[in-house]
Amino acid sequence: MEDKLNQQSKLEFEKLVEESSHKMRTTFVSRHKKFDEFFLELLDNSEKSLNSMFTRTYGKLYMQNSEVFQDLFTELKRYYTGGNVNLEEMLNDFWSRLLERMFQLLNSQYHFTDDYLECVSKYTDQLKPFGDIPRKLKAQVTRAFIAARTFVQGLMVGREVANRVAKVNVAPACVKALTRMLYCPYCRGMPGLKPCPNYCHNVMRGCLANQADLDSEWNLFIDAMLLVADRLQGPSNIEAVIQPIDIKISDAIMTMQDNSMQVSAKVFQGCGQPKPSGIGRSARGISDVFSGRFRPYTPEERPTTAAGTSLDRLVIDIKEKLKESRRFWSNLPDDICAKGKLTEPDEEQCWNSHTKGRYFPEVVKEGLTNQVNNPEVEVDITRPDTLIRQQIMALRVMTNKLKNAYNGNDIYFQDSSDEGSSSGSGSGCSDGCTTEFIFVGTEAPVIGADRSDERAAAAGKSVSCGPSVLLLTVALTLPLWAMQTQWR
Hints:
The protein is mostly helical.
C-alpha cells in the first residue's frame, strides 16, 4: 500500500509541475510559430512584389534574368531557416551577377566570354556601378537577418529547455516527503485537511532545488532575448528592410544605367576591348528598356502578412511574455503552493506534517545549496542534476549568441540540410529535433539530485503514518488536487 501511495504522490507532483509550466512553455511554442510564419510570409510577399513590378517594368528582359533575383530570396530564406549561408558573400555575389547581366545588356553590340565577365565582376567594388546602394543594403540586411534568425532560434531554445526541465526527476526522498504531505492527513482521520503554506514551500523547494538553480541563467537568457527584440523594433528592423528591397534594387539598376558609359569605358580599359557581336543593338535601343516606367506599389497596394500582423505588434507581444517568464523556475515552488490551490490559507487549520495546527519551521531559500537544512526533504547537495546542468549550458551558449547578434555579429548555426531536414522554420527542423549547438547529450539518462534512497535503505525509514487500510483505500480513490496557474 505504501508503494501505491508513493507512486500516486510522484504522479501528482509531476502533474503539478506540468500544469504550472504548461502555459509558459506554450508561450514559447506559439510565439516561435507566429514569428516564423510572419518572417517567411514577409519574404514571400517581398519576392512576389519584386517579381510583379519587374515583370511589368522590364518585361522579357527581366524574365530572361529572373533567376538572379530568385536566387537572392532563396538564399535569404535558407539563411533564416538555419542554412550555412554567409550573408555578406551571398549579397556580394548577387551584385556581381547583376553587374554581369546588366553589363551585357547595356553593351549588347559586343560578345563577352565567361573570362571577360569574370573580369568585369572584379571591378564591382572599384567602379561602384550601383552607387552606394549595395553597401547600405548589405549593412541593413545582415543586421536585420542576424537579429531575426538568432531571435527565433532563442525562442526555440527556450521552448526546448522548458520542455526538458518540466519533466522532473523525482528523487525517492522527495516522493516520501510528498506522500507525507499529501496523504498523512487521511491516515490521521482528517481527509479534508490541506497542507500549511510554509510546509508546502519547504517540500516543493526541496523537490525542485535543481530547477531553481536554472533561474539565474534563465534570467540572463531572457534579458538577452529582450535586447535582440529591441533590435527587431529599431529603424533597421526586418520589416523596414525586406519590404522595400524591390525599390532599392530598381534604384540600383537605374544608377547603373545612368552611369553605363563611364562604367563600360573603365571596364574596357581594365579588361580589354571586347569583340563586336555582329548583331548590334536592337532597333528600339536597350536604354529605352531601362526607362523611368518603374512604379513601386503604394503602401495600400503592397501585400500584407496574414491578418495584417505588423512586426511591432508581434514583438511587443513576445516581449511581454518573455518578461513574465523571468524568475519562473525559482518561483515555481511558490506557484504550486499558492493559497487556494494546494494549501490551506488558514495557518491554524492546516496539516503541519504531524497534526492540524501552525507550521513552525522556517522556509528555506530556493536552490540546491540551501537545502542542506531543509526539515522536510533530504537533499544531497553534492550531486547536482545532470539534465539541469546541461540545460544551464544550453542557455549560456544561446545567451552568448544573442549578445553577438545584438552587436550585429553573424553566428554559425548548423546547416539544416546536414541533417536531411527541409523544414521551413527558423529552427531549421521540426518540433522533434534540435540544432547542433543547443543540447549536448541531453538524451543521456537523467541522474538524480540526491542519494536519499540510499540513506533511507540504511536507516530503514518508512513513510507509514499508521493508517487503517480502509482510509488508505479511500485516499487512493479520492480525486487529487489540481492546480491552475494564471498566465496572462
